[in-house]
Amino acid sequence: MRGPARADSPVRDSLDRVRARIESAARRAGRDPLGVHLIGVTKTVPVARIREAMSAGLVHLGENRVQEAAGKILEMGGAPGGVTWHLVGHLQSNKARRAVELFDCIHSVDSVALVRKLARVAEELGTRRDILIQVDLGGEPTKFGLDPGLAADLAREAAAHPALRARGLMTIPPMSADPEASRPFFRRLREIRDQVAVLGFDLPDLSMGMTSDFEVAIEEGATMVRVGRAIFGERG
């Protein structure tokens, strides 16, 4: 029995294609596709199109900037129920309070000072926030993240603050037209995660892979992929 016809939706169709690619990549790696969470990055995307993606079942939304997310959430009448908001861009410490208020998970934590500021704010607000430790593997001056050798130290610091839960690691490899160029960086992040685990810090999540290379990231163990253009099209 056929269900009701659906209206044409470019965003829904794009989501379907991305989900199919995620499933194929996971199967190639012998992984359960349900272990990969798709974060739709909504930088510069208008609220109407975000709602379209939500109606198609997208439950993880990612924003690069605190102020842009605040405006969109206000326009939506508050954070929609059933949706998890992720901050995937660099976080300045002076925006830590607003980030804790708006986001469920902050992917870009890269210093002891920022860990302590987020913990203090979360405690004051009576909440607990998930964080990811951003690791700089490419050594690019324009990218943020801490030195790989300091990941365990930052995990130890985060573990000392009950108001934070360190869930894993995040990285952004150097840009390349070849997705395979990202593979060594993704593999290295997984290795760092495993090394930190030996020291007693369980960081199961790996946030890595974007539109250009998320399938390679999944093959290397990504549990979160941050996809914008493949869902919403080129940014205006």
Protein model, in words:
The chain has 236 residues and is α/β, with parallel strands linked by helices. The chain has a single domain, classed as Alanine racemase (TIM Barrel), CATH 3.20.20. The chain contains 9 helices and 8 strands. It has helices at residues 10-28, 47-55, 66-75, 96-102, 112-125, 151-159, 183-198, 214-219, 229-232; strands at residues 37-41, 60-63, 84-87, 105-109, 129-134, 164-170, 205-207, 224-227. An 8-stranded parallel beta sheet has the order 7-6-5-4-3-2-1-8. It is globular.
Tags for this entry?
TIM Barrel, alpha/beta, 236 residues, 9 helices, eight-stranded parallel β-sheet, disordered N terminus
Structure at a glance:
This protein is of the alpha/beta class and 236 residues long. It has helices at 10-28, 47-55, 66-75, 96-102, 112-125, 151-159, 183-198, 214-219, 229-232; strands spanning 37-41, 60-63, 84-87, 105-109, 129-134, 164-170, 205-207, 224-227.
Please render the helix and strand layout as text.
Blueprint: H1 10-28, E1 37-41, H2 47-55, E2 60-63, H3 66-75, E3 84-87, H4 96-102, E4 105-109, H5 112-125, E5 129-134, H6 151-159, E6 164-170, H7 183-198, E7 205-207, H8 214-219, E8 224-227, H9 229-232
Parallel strand pairs: 1-2, 1-8, 2-3, 3-4, 4-5, 5-6, 6-7
Helix pairs in contact: 4-5
Order of helices and strands: HEHEHEHEHEHEHEHEH
With helices defined by DSSP (H or I, 4 residues minimum), what is the helix count?
Answer: 9
Span between termini: 41 Å
Order of strands, widest sheet: 7-6-5-4-3-2-1-8
Named at the architecture level, the CATH assignment is Alpha-Beta Barrel
SS-based structural class?
alpha/beta
